[in-house]
Amino acid sequence: MKLEPGMLARSKAGHDRDRVYVIIETENEYVYVADGELRPLRHMKRKNSRHLQPILKMRLEGKPDDEGIRRIIREFIRQED
After folding, report:
1. In the chain, which stretches have pLDDT less than 70?
2. Residue 60 CA neighbour count, 13 Å, CB half
């Protein structure tokens, strides 16, 4: 599956395993992700796309900002429980 900006994704590998992110930008096999808390937009994390599991239930629409990212991730986690 092709990862696209605005999609939610769960980390499958690394010290941040199981953390939920929003994909901000894609670049070849790497993507830049943010969660609005530990990884705000100004400090996005670069991750290999193979280490992410896309979440198809929700998607961030419009221009991303830290508050919107935090809100959509909280919504997803609430639905998951």
Report:
1. none
2. 29
